[in-house]
Amino acid sequence: MTSAAPASTRQPRAHWPFKIKPLHPAFGCEITGITLEQAIDELAFASVYEAFLDYEVILFRNVDLPPATQVAFARRFGEVQIHPMSQYHGYGHPEIYLLSNLDADGKPNGKHPDKGTLYWHTDGSWRERSGLATMMYSEICPNVGGQTQFCDMHAAYDNLSPEWKARIRGKKAVHNLDFSRTRRHGHDPMTAEQKAKVPPVAQPIVRLHPDTQRLGIFLGDHAEYIEGMPYDEGRQLIEELNVAATPAHLVYAHDWTTGECMVWDNRSTMHRATGFDVAHDRRKMRRCTINGDKPMDGFFD
Known about the structure:
This protein is 24% helix and 26% strand. It is α+β, with helices and mostly antiparallel strands.
């Protein structure tokens, strides 16, 4: 099977009750002319979801999004994930994953909340039902750094050489949250109870998007090894492909400002955060991840 044509030409559809501004030549858009409250409405949401599929990353600026409203908006996309690492739950909502370097007095504590976010990954790839979407809201943004970078995994697959495509055809990588957590944030490891909730799971390296029928790379920092390959050889392939899949011209780097809500498709993108001065600057973000389906292998023969 070859990669299907894009689901759209990434142009706004005539029936959409809002306007869009591209964020990057290849993907991503800002939605304007509609409030977030209107976007949640059943009729408008159908168009919002179309834009989400077409552009892969959608952005709403200058919005007031209380935690309960964020959870309600996330539920429009599907079942909201309860992350096994409960120490990140925020505002009394287990659906909210809070990323903050602030202490109880609201001052920088000098610690990065989750160093794993600094590496290319896909949220929830370590679940059998991987993440469909992630919704991030910016409460406090640092003066410098703290971006979120995105890369289009459909274009990344299309741009691979025939040799690379043959090399990964039909292969599965084992995604393991304990592996990536220990590797990047070993001073705060998962508990035995948390590990038991999310055992390692094999996922296709090339997946078929269930809505757009496009092929894309599905990998990232949670991938530990490749089934059927020696461990070290599989590790090398994973690291090489993570680099090959994220060339600079396919990357959109988002500079956050306070009061922005962004939703991205975990089935067609990878993302990572950039660093900031955790000892002197402040950053507070909250996210909801929406559970999706079991990833489908892009090849059936």
